[in-house]
């Protein structure tokens, strides 16, 4: 066998695109308005026999949609008219079997012969859900910048709790790896497909972009803590212990995967548990830090307002989606997502109360620094200012004219 033929044979053996007699659906994600209809197109690729052109395909049935039980392939295509009877999310229309004259079994590869049908109540709600989704994505993505800008303008990170930053870096690091593997790793995706047949992909490109961007933003903020003024702030011992535990959990998952004790999908899932643990813990240190200082100076309220907007819109999107497809399972079947969103909103409200109510008029010594609020400048600067004030109080109050 020469090289070109060998390469062609390899492609045919590993790629569904080159599979012989491969029945596929052109559009696997289909949306229908309640009472409306659409056409789902089945197509036979790489056919090896003209008799396949008269193949009868037997379709699955669902109480939410109406369509023929059997369709006949004509000109290598079979069009199925689907009517939306009841609201539903991801009802599966799939080819279960087929018959062809002269064949004792189905000669087609039906692995990709399916479509996920969503029947919605309102097209307007569907558009609104998309708008809300992109809005909270933007709010969460931008939420990292107010704190970075405040640090840059003050040339100081006094008021920013380092435990919060350290946990955020670990959490988004784990979340970024989770999304990257789920989206790009073919082995992980194949295992997920086997364990969750006909399910939509759990991670989209915007999830990957958000997670990687969030990790990078946290890393930049930590660099600011290295180069800008900081008081006596440091990562606490309790936080270090927690981070060691979380990283150890991830390392143990890696070892278990290498030893074939768990699948790589289980390892990837364990990374999401790290992100969940971080989200539940990361807000406490900053809230307590504000309480002990009796001030929110140095902690950007813009970050909190954007985070609150993103979390609120995330839950709003879940509610709108549940209304549109009459499916509230996202709230009880996946309580983690809802719970984490609720935790974020709860602490955002606490931070807003601290900033706008409890510590609104608190005056902090040495409040001015580079034109903005700063509670505690460098000790040497503070001592020099105190010395100058004492000397000036002993001198004449007559005006001093300084010529340039």
UniProtKB/TrEMBL annotation:
Q: Which reaction does it catalyse?
A: L-cystine(out) + H(+)(out) = L-cystine(in) + H(+)(in)
Stretches that traverse the bilayer = 124-145, 157-184, 204-227, 239-258, 264-285, 297-320, 340-359
Compartment(s) where it occurs, according to its Swiss-Prot or TrEMBL record: Cytoplasmic vesicle, Phagosome; Lysosome membrane
What is any Pfam family matched here?
Answer: PQ-loop
The terms describing its cellular component in GO are:
lysosomal membrane; lysosome; phagocytic vesicle
Recorded superkingdom:
Eukaryota
Is Transmembrane helix among the key words of this record?
yes
For this UniProt record, the keywords arranged alphabetically read as follows: Cytoplasmic vesicle, Glycoprotein, Lysosome, Membrane, Repeat, Signal, Symport, Transmembrane, Transmembrane helix, Transport
Topology class, membrane: Multi-pass membrane protein
The biological processes this protein is annotated with in GO are: lysosome organization; phagocytosis
- The stretch of residues making up the signal peptide is 1-19
The segment annotated Disordered runs over 370-404
The molecular function GO annotations come to: L-cystine transmembrane transporter activity; symporter activity
- Please report which protein family the annotation says this sequence is part of: Belongs to the cystinosin family.
Q: Show the NCBIfam families listed in the entry.
A: 2A43
Function, as annotated: Cystine/H(+) symporter that mediates export of cystine, the oxidized dimer of cysteine, from lysosomes. May play a role in the degradation of engulfed apoptotic cells.
Protein name per UniProt: Cystinosin homolog
Native organism taxonomy: Eukaryota, Metazoa, Ecdysozoa, Nematoda, Chromadorea
């Amino acid at each position: 066998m020469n090289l070109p033929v060998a390469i062609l044979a390899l492609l045919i053996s590993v790629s569904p695109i080159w599979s012989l007699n491969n029945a596929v659906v052109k559009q696997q994600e289909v949306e229908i308005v309640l009472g409306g209809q659409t056409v789902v197109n089945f197509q036979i690729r790489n056919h090896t026999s003209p008799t396949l052109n008269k193949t009868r395909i037997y379709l699955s049935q669902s109480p939410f949609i109406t369509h023929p039980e059997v369709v006949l392939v004509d000109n290598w295509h079979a069009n199925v008219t689907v009517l939306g009877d009841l609201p539903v999310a991801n009802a599966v229309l799939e080819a279960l079997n087929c018959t062809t004259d002269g064949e004792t079994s189905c000669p087609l590869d039906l692995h990709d012969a399916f479509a996920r049908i969503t029947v919605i109540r309102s097209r307007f709600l569907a558009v609104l859900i998309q708008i809300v989704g992109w809005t909270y994505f933007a709010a969460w993505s931008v939420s990292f910048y107010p704190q970075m800008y405040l640090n840059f303008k003050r040339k100081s990170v006094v008021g920013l709790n380092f435990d919060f930053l350290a946990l955020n870096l670990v959490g988004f690091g784990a979340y970024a790896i989770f999304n990257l593997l789920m989206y790009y790793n073919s082995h992980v995706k194949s295992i997920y497909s086997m364990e969750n047949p006909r399910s939509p992909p759990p991670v989209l490109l915007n999830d990957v972009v958000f997670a990687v961007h969030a990790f990078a933003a946290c890393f930049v903020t930590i660099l600011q803590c290295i180069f800008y003024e900081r008081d006596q702030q440091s990562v606490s011992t309790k936080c270090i212990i927690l981070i060691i535990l979380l990283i150890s959990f991830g390392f143990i998952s890696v070892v278990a995967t290498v030893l074939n004790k768990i699948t790589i999908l289980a390892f990837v899932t364990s990374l999401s548990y790290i992100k969940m643990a971080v989200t539940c813990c990361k807000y406490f240190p900053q809230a307590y830090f504000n309480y002990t200082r009796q001030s929110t100076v140095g902690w950007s309220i813009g970050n909190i307002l954007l985070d609150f907007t993103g979390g609120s819109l995330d839950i709003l999107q879940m509610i709108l989606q549940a209304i549109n497809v009459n499916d509230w399972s996202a709230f009880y079947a996946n309580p983690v997502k809802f719970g984490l969103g609720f935790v974020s909103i709860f602490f955002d409200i606490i931070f807003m109360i601290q900033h706008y109510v409890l510590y609104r008029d608190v005056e902090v010594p040495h409040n001015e620094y580079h034109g903005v609020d700063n509670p505690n400048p460098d000790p040497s600067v503070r001592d020099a200012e105190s010395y100058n004030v004492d000397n000036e109080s002993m001198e004449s109050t007559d005006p001093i004219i300084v010529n340039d």
